[in-house]
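Form 12-C: Joint structure prediction
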Amino acid sequence: MRPHGPVDFQTRTYDYIRSPDQGAEPTARHPVVVVGAGPVGLTLAIDLAQHQVPVVLLDKDDTLSTGSRAICFAKRTLEIFDRLGCGERMVAKGVSWSVGKVFFRDEQIFSFNLLPKAGQQRPAFINLQQYYVEAYLVERVAELPLIDLRWKNEVIGVVRHADHAVLTVQTPDGPYQLRADYVAACDGSRSAIRELIGQQTSGRVFQDRFLIADVKMKLDHPAERWFWFDPSFHPHQSVLLHKQPDDVWRIDFQLGWDANPDEEKKPENIIPRVQALLANSTMKDAQFELEWASVYTFACSRMERFRHGRVIFAGDSAHALSPFGARGANSGVQDAENLAWKLALVVSNQAPDALLDTYGEEREPAAGENIRNSTRSTDFITPKSEVSRTFRDAVLELSRHHAFARPLVNTGRLSVPAILDDSPLNTPDAPDAPFDPCMRPGAVAVDAPVTLADGKDDWLLRQFGDQFTALVYGDDDLAERLQVAVEDLVPLRVLSVRAPPRGATVRTDLPGSVCDREGLVAERYDFLPGSVYLLRPDQHVCARWRRPSVEALRRALKRAIGLPGGDPL
Amino acid sequence: MRLITEPNLTAVDDFYEALIDAHRDLSIGESQALNARLVLLLANHIGALDVLKEALTAARAGAVPGGP
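Section 2 - Result
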């Protein structure tokens, strides 16, 4: 019996249930086995199930994340969770924020707002403890009968074959074997699968230590990201303060390389650091208790290739990042979304196996971009040479009086979705039909307010579903022609976007259409009557035209799923 | 745009004197900090990354034996 009242997700355990696959003869075979039920593996499993692919999801223990860990979830991640049916819970529980402030010594030098564009459903970021994110994803998994989530199932062996892999899985009842057409390794930065197939990551390890302290206290402080360089309460180092739900505050203290991690982890050493921070604020006498603490070092590294035959890596197993910029979990969720629809098309024989190569071709550069950003932030925050520190301090000093220096201040360039510029799945813009470059092929669709046919106000991204979508602007006949033309290829939802009426009332009396209530869809997509955007299931733009022929759309769709015959007209 | 390496200063000796004067009575560390701020101010004034990279290459040629 589950206890009534609020569940403590930090102590919650999930039941190990013996699977019929254990001891089965012959060894059971599954189209997809996902290893690791963290944010990335759970996202991938849910997305696959929504694409009607049965999934076995293995996790080596029976608990959620230990400690709050990844706490910043970006707008794009929330939009993905929306499509997967659990975004609303995350946002309702999370602390929304978009403003950050930067302090040098004890003076504010800079503030920024990450959501300059209003008229989007989701905030720039929410802060939410990773165990809540995982718990809500696990609850969503429970609604999807296609997912077989097996706790206390640890992969201890992998044998790769040309068209499948055999996993040896350890359980409380002993080991058993599984065959999988595809294995998705979402098993974190110390990935056992990576080790088992003899692969590694390469990159930079940073010689610095940080203390995370999660502190529970009632503090009258706005939900903003506060970052200090060299504050008087923690001289020569940096400090980051973030608000989480349940009155928990995340404080990151840079400690330097010489700090003793075992000593710094002790509450008697953490409490004076927190007291010093509070003494500096208006909340000098706030009572607090320590909820969780960890001392960590980090690396920026990645696997060279994310796909190794039938074994595919996503999230931290493929790439490790510094925490500055909140790019770890957020990029991992994007990996999962990129992989899910491709795997679904391949295992259902709608697309060739080579489509999965494009997962690596798209997400490897994305990881490169994240590592570059993350490394640059780290070099600014923790300069590793005398001259690097001199320039860093010069930037901070100048930024007190000169606006030009403020954009140089780098406390973490916060996660934004990668633009898949070089993807082979993109159909380039026709040279004679210019568009604003913002929403070019490779970019992720941006949200805007719309009114539905039944008169309800809603959001554009909510209308896309799990399949390909064609957004057709201001031309219902064209929308109808395109819908009929591709029915033999892959499922496509044609969404007709109408211009706002010039009169006072909005009319949307045709089904399958939305009204661009505030004109923001047209503005953001640079729409003219007859313009069409083709969006992939992961909501990235893969083609756009001023007025496409049916053949142009067919070719772009073929190209986007890796079929021959996809050259542009 | 390309980096200007032909004479371009309006008053060479006045500039040089002002540069040295700006460092008067500063320790080596303070001078280094001043130079860093100066580089950043001038870099922003120039703006164009290709010009700045050309300047960085030209400056580094003086530091590396046999450089650039």
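Section 3 - Comments
The longest helix of chain B spans residues 28-46. The mean pLDDT of chain B is 93.
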